[in-house]
Automatic annotation (TrEMBL):
GO terms for molecular function: actin binding; muscle alpha-actinin binding. It comes from the Eukaryota. It is found in: Cytoplasm. The lineage of its organism: Eukaryota, Metazoa, Chordata, Craniata, Vertebrata. This is PDZ domain-containing protein. Keywords: Cytoplasm, LIM domain, Metal-binding, Zinc. Residues 12-85 form the PDZ domain.
Length: 108
């Protein structure tokens, strides 16, 4: 996964919604970005994973811990992000593909 850092200027509100955390057994991710917000202007991407908040790793961080860390940002909020890797979709099965039959399923 490729990482990038975003610095949101000033004080909150930042304009993004957080989901996940250790208590939800899933990584901390950006679930929503408010149009026109600081997060939108800094090109945060919905679905990307937050790896660190102000230099502190989010590994093992609960949702509440992450929220509190974000709220404590005084001047700027620095987020180290990791691109969400979407699974590549399987191509649709062609209708002319021959599906092998198990011998006991064959009709005589």
């Amino acid at each position: 996964m490729s990482a990038y850092t975003v610095t949101l200027p000033g004080l909150g509100p930042w304009g993004f919604r957080l989901q996940g955390g250790k208590d939800f057994n899933m990584p901390l991710t950006i679930s929503k970005i408010t149009p026109g917000s600081k997060a939108a202007q800094c090109n945060l991407i919905q679905g990307d994973v937050i790896v660190a908040i102000d230099g502190v790793s989010t590994e093992g961080m609960t949702h509440l811990d992450a929220q509190n860390k974000i709220k404590m940002a005084n001047f700027n909020l620095a987020l180290t992000m990791s691109k969400f890797k979407r699974p590549t979709p399987m191509p649709p099965m062609r209708m002319d593909t021959i599906i092998p039959m198990i011998p006991h399923q064959q009709v005589s």
